[in-house]
UniProtKB/TrEMBL annotation, chains A, B:
It comes from Proteiniphilum saccharofermentans. InterPro entries: 6-PGluconate_DH-like_C_sf, DUF2520, NAD(P)-bd_dom_sf, OxRdtase/DH_put_Rossmann_dom, TM1727-like_C_sf. It comes from the Bacteria. SUPFAM superfamilies: 6-phosphogluconate dehydrogenase C-terminal domain-like (SSF48179), NAD(P)-binding Rossmann-fold domains (SSF51735). This is DUF2520 domain-containing protein. Residues 123-247 form the DUF2520 domain. Residues 4-106 form the Putative oxidoreductase/dehydrogenase Rossmann-like domain. Pfam families: DUF2520, Rossmann-like.
């Protein structure tokens, strides 16, 4: 399939590389900053562009993978094109892409970082389309890069994105707070690696409610009080108190 | 080594099984509830006992792996014995085992669940001892079951335990909250598996501050507001707000 990629961030990069590897032709990569467009374009053999007036108008698919806030602005500047328009955002309705008619969504449920190589085949891809034809095209495309493709409405997708914030962003922030505690004591943060790995492994095999361990689920008030005394940082203390209460309430 | 294990919970079980496999003789397993003692004892070829007066008094090591709150009570009822006494708790000072003189700590930094098989060799074991002889004995023993043994003072160990609460218990609670959101929408929670696995994998390879993604780190107020509107549960809404603020402050 002939594809134009709009965006050059982590999601755009990982997806363009996966599509290119699957044999699709990335015709152009657009970024407001030409250097960023060039960087991704060179990886996938595409033409880099930094103006929307230069866009190739007869591609089969336009993937909008830009910051949520920039999306309406970019859409408003798009010239008329053939083909399907699809965005990759979790919390934005497909209607952001109107008045273009063949519009849809291609949402990858994963956390992307620049220097991480990912096996795209394992990444759940959630698609939505305004017509049967668009759904069929996005499904066919999605299945060339992922073995985990699902049709999901925008109403449900935003809850999926919300759950992902808890399971990924907030989880990662817990690791960050743990690393601050370890660093302050001069203990290597990466001693936590087997604990982090096993906690995640349990959550993928078991119900996380059953997997819960620690002082809060036992409501071990002595340990909870001692831990709070060790925390000088009021922000960490507030988080400790709120999450311990929440775990306790869940397991009452 | 001849070892008596006091306790029959998850930590006691995983540790007794690992010690038994490494060739040590588990002489007795004590639990207040004889059925629990029997269950673990049968796994490691030990004698189950439910009274502290029945304890074998000339073992080389007594491992106290009971609930933190029960520990002082059990210690106070212990008959005089030879050998070293060691507990497995993260937040309890070694002094809880006085007046016995040869006392120490053997703290495994891991989350243990009944039905999970673990490779004990990867688990970091933190030891402490009141004398050089006790340290030497605990180190020798620890190295027979783990390739990740460290000497650490009780003062530092309690910070390690505190960091572990963030990296494991709070992290797992985030998975539990995500699963509640998914369940309410009728979307399979385990679709989050690749996201959970990659988030944890990143945290073991990168600095979690660098690994952070999501609306809070970008301070995408629109998405944050929309997510909060989706949350009917005031507890989840409070957690969402506090953690988003904390991520934002960390990355300002």
């Amino acid at each position: 399939m002939e594809i134009v990629v709009l965006g050059s961030g982590n999601v755009a990069t990982h997806m363009a590389v996966a599509l290119n590897r699957a044999g699709h032709k990335i015709v152009q990569v657009y970024s407001r900053t030409i250097k960023n467009a060039e960087q991704l374009a060179s990886k996938v053999g595409a033409e880099p562009i930094s103006g929307l007036d230069a866009i190739h108008c007869s591609a089969e698919l336009y993937i909008f993978s830009v910051k949520d806030d920039s999306l309406p602005d970019i859409v408003s500047q798009m010239p008329p094109t053939t083909g399907v328009w699809a965005h990759t955002a979790g919390s934005i309705p497909v209607s952001v892409l109107s008045p273009h008619k063949e519009r849809g969504v291609l949402y990858p449920l994963q956390t992307f970082s620049r220097d991480r190589t990912l096996n795209f085949r394992d990444i759940p891809l959630f698609i939505e389309g305004e017509s049967e034809e668009t759904v069929a095209l996005l499904k066919e495309l999605a299945e060339t890069i992922s073995g985990n493709v699902h049709l999901l409405s925008g109403d449900k997708r935003r809850f999926l994105h919300l759950a992902a914030v808890f399971a990924c962003n907030f989880t990662n922030h817990m690791y960050a707070l743990a690393s601050e505690i370890m660093d302050e004591e001069g203990i290597s943060y990466h001693l936590l690696n087997p604990l982090i790995t096993e906690t995640a492994a349990k959550a993928t095999k078991m119900d996380p409610h059953t997997a819960q361990t620690g002082p809060a689920v036992r409501f071990d008030e002595k340990v909870i009080r001692k831990h709070q005394e060790l925390l000088n940082d009021p922000r960490k203390r507030e988080i400790y108190a709120l999450l311990s209460r929440s775990i306790h309430k869940t397991h009452q």
